[in-house]
Amino acid sequence: MLTYHFYPPDFSGQGISLFAFFILMFFVSSMPMVINNTPIFLIQWVTMAVFLTFGLFAEMIMVQLGILVLLLRLKIQKDQLFRLPLNSLLFFTLSLLSGLAYFAMGGKIGVDLIENPQYFWIAAAYPIIHFTLNQVLISVIQAALYGRKISFLEKDLIWETVTSLITFPIGLILYILYSEVGILALLFVGVPFVSLSIILHLYYSSEKVIEYLQKAADIGHQMAERLDVNEVMELFILKLSEMLPVDYAYILDIKDNDELHSIYRIEHGQIKPNDLKPTKKSEGISGLVLGTRKSALFHSRKKWKSIAKEFLPEDAESLICVPIVRSNEVLGILLLSSAKKRSYEKSQLMIVDILCSHFAIAIENAKHYEETKAKSERCALTKLFNYRYMEAKLNKEFSRLQNGEREFLSLIILDIDHFKKVNDTYGHQSGNEILCELAGRLANLIDEAGIAARYGGEEFVVLMPDTSKEDTLAWAELIRQTIANRPFILKQNIDGSSSSTKVYITASIGVAAAPEDADDSLALIRHADRALYVGAKRAGRNRVAEYVK
Asked: Which residue windows are transmembrane per the record (predicted)?
């Protein structure tokens, strides 16, 4: 009201012109570009012409209407409704300060800039003041509300600077032309500029797609470099979360060709256990995507709530669901969700689809590598580590001992007593059964305390990092009892009968430890082996012996 009082407008006979300006502003406001979460809309040239023609009050009203159109176009969420009064106050302050600065410089409303060139430079200074105040106010508000560091080299500022350099001269041209030909000026200037706005909007959209494609290519290369399945999944979700607003992410695997199971789950940036209830592959959003093999995009919860059977949280709104396809076969489903409505666009869905193709290839490569590595490191019969792996691991651990990273390094070697007799009595297939069951007992007993491996034939070794010789002897005795006190069940007898047979066996065990017994890895093996044969085998078998110098 004070603005109306001190700067009263003269709208007599100008109703149609004001309405025409509003229509022009409506089209421009409805085509914003959102850069770094900052909407940029090009109404300044329209409001500048309104200000110079009708005065400060008319410009303020026009700006407020433009903000309303913009926020309706952006479809802000309920939790962001504070932006309406905040932006209204911001632009009210901006209009007031810019207008006061214009009048303070001696500017006038409705002046003919061609006949009075001294006012031209004042009118030209108005948009510069308006632009500067706008950047300062926006930076201060973003720093106060969102904690963003004040910077004048952001991408959104560069875009706004470029567009302002284009639009402000057009605003002056519109004002001068309107003074000469009236409302037709809006047609002569407005139509080309609206076309320019559409072109800029499309250009920025294409720039975003190109940027997404470049990021997708980089992510694809990074995933291809990973040779661990879990690392590939972690990198995939991490990079997706950096590109898109992701609150919930799930990678679903098809199990038994019937159900979809979560194999990787992140909620609000935290990895969660995969304890979600599986869904049938014909049910829910993921089932729909699996069946059609087509990606799905939903802008709000009400769009997908009726078909969802999944484990989606209550606050999930926007949703992307994409099939993970490799060699024309669906390997799984990716499901992304945001707690905000309309968080995703069709172009982003396309990018996620491309990334899923890269992901499928990276996962297959990682699985193939892990399988190949396992075959080279594991005994095909017992599934324990083999001699090659144990030799490399022992050398590595001994280096860590010598570097001071380990305090102790102990080694257990065990040999099954009279194993040839077992093979001769029950057959080699039964002997293999015993080797497999013994390997299972070793793995379960040792767990993470050490590393068990098949050393060759009926010999097994257990490497015990950071375990003293005394403690290792206790472990060895526990292993001996585990073997001797529980029978081994043979299901394949040499006579071909189907009845199970209980067989008791024993093992002799040797123990050596570094640094007290050995100063290199070969010496540690040699001394543990000596303890086995001299201290255990020769002393009667079924016992534990330690290396004695």
From this structure: 16-35, 41-72, 84-104, 119-145, 157-177, 183-204
